[in-house]
C-alpha cells in the first residue's frame, strides 16, 4: 500500500501492491443496529419475561453480565450466553423480526464486487460461526471471500496479538502486502503489533499511528486512486 497523503481531511490511497484484504463483518460490511438492538433490548426483554421481573431490572442484570465479558472470547460465544441466560440465543436470532434487522452498510457490496477478482479477500470476524451463518443466510457474502475465518475457531479473538500470528500462518499470507479493514480500535492495535496495517471504518476520529479512518466503505472507495 502506498502511503496515505493527508490533504487536510482527504486521504488519497491506492491499493496497488496489496495482495490481500482482510475485512471485518460487523460495523464494516453489516451495520451494528441489529446487534445493538438484539443484545441491548431484545435479550433483556426476553430475560425479564422468563424471570418475571421488570424490564429495568433485567437490563441491569444482563448489561452487567455483558460488560463483564466485553472484549473476551465468551462475549462472542452464543453457547456461552445460552447457558448463562438460559435463553436459546440462536433461536432468538432466527426469529423473523430479528433477521429483518440485519442490514448492509453503504458501499459494502460495491467494494466486494470491485476487489474480489484481483485481490484475495478474507472475511475475518469475531462473530460465532452460528451468528455468521445466520447473517450470511440473510445477506450472502461468502462468495466474495477466499476464506471466512471465525476467530474463536483459532482459539483467540482479534483483540489478542496471538490471533494475528496464527491467522497469518493459517492463510499463508505476507502482512506487508495486506490490509485490514476494521471498526474496532483494539483489533486495529493488536493487528498493528503483529505487523498488519489497517484502515478504520467508523463515525469517529481515532488517533492511532496515523491509521486513516472513513465513515464507511463507500467513502473509502471514493478516496482510492
Ligand atoms: Mg466489527
Description:
The protein has 225 residues and is α/β, with parallel strands linked by helices. The chain is 43% helix and 14% strand. It folds into 2 domains: 20-31 and 104-222, Rossmann fold, CATH 3.40.50.1000; 33-99, no CATH class. It has a 6-stranded parallel β-sheet with strand order 5-4-3-6-7-8. Strand 4 (120-125), helix 7 and strand 5 (147-150) form a beta-alpha-beta unit. The termini are close together. Helix 1 (33-50) packs across helix 2. Magnesium ion binds at residues 24, 26-28, 183-184.
Characterize this entry briefly.
This protein is α/β, with parallel strands linked by helices and 225 residues long. It has helices at residues 33-50, 55-69, 78-85, 89-94, 96-99, 108-115, 129-138, 161-171, 185-193, 217-223, and strands at 5-7, 10-12, 20-23, 120-125, 147-150, 178-182, 197-201, 213-214. Helices cover 43% and strands 14% of the residues.
Topology:
Elements: E1 5-7, E2 10-12, E3 20-23, H1 33-50, H2 55-69, H3 78-85, H4 89-94, H5 96-99, H6 108-115, E4 120-125, H7 129-138, E5 147-150, H8 161-171, E6 178-182, H9 185-193, E7 197-201, E8 213-214, H10 217-223
Parallel strand pairs: 3-4, 3-6, 4-5, 6-7, 7-8
Antiparallel strand pairs: 1-2
Helix pairs in contact: 1-2
The protein binds magnesium ion (MG).
Amino acid at each position: 500500500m502506498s502511503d496515505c497523503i493527508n490533504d487536510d481531511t482527504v486521504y488519497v490511497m491506492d491499493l496497488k501492491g496489496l495482495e490481500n484484504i482482510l475485512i471485518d463483518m460487523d460495523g464494516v460490511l453489516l451495520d451494528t443496529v441489529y446487534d445493538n438492538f438484539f443484545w441491548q433490548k431484545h435479550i433483556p426483554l426476553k430475560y425479564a419475561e422468563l424471570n418475571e421481573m421488570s424490564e429495568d431490572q433485567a437490563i441491569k442484570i444482563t448489561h452487567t453480565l455483558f460488560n463483564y465479558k466485553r472484549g473476551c472470547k465468551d462475549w462472542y460465544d452464543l453457547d456461552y450466553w445460552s447457558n448463562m441466560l438460559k435463553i436459546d440465543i440462536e433461536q432468538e436470532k432466527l426469529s423473523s423480526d430479528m433477521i429483518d434487522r440485519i442490514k448492509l452498510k453503504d458501499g459494502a457490496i460495491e467494494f466486494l464486487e470491485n476487489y474480489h477478482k484481483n485481490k484475495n479477500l478474507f472475511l475475518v470476524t469475531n462473530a460465532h460461526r452460528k451468528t455468521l451463518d445466520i447473517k450470511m443466510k440473510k445477506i450472502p457474502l461468502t462468495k466474495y471471500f477466499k476464506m471466512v475465518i471465525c476467530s474463536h475457531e483459532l482459539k483467540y479473538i482479534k483483540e489478542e496479538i496471538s490471533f494475528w500470528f496464527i491467522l497469518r500462518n493459517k492463510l499463508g499470507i505476507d502482512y506487508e502486502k495486506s490490509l485490514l479493514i476494521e471498526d474496532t480500535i483494539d483489533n486495529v492495535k493488536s493487528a498493528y503489533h503483529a505487523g498488519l496495517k489497517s484502515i478504520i471504518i467508523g463515525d469517529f476520529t481515532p488517533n492511532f499511528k496515523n491509521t486513516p479512518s472513513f465513515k464507511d466503505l463507500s467513502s473509502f472507495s471514493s478516496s482510492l486512486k
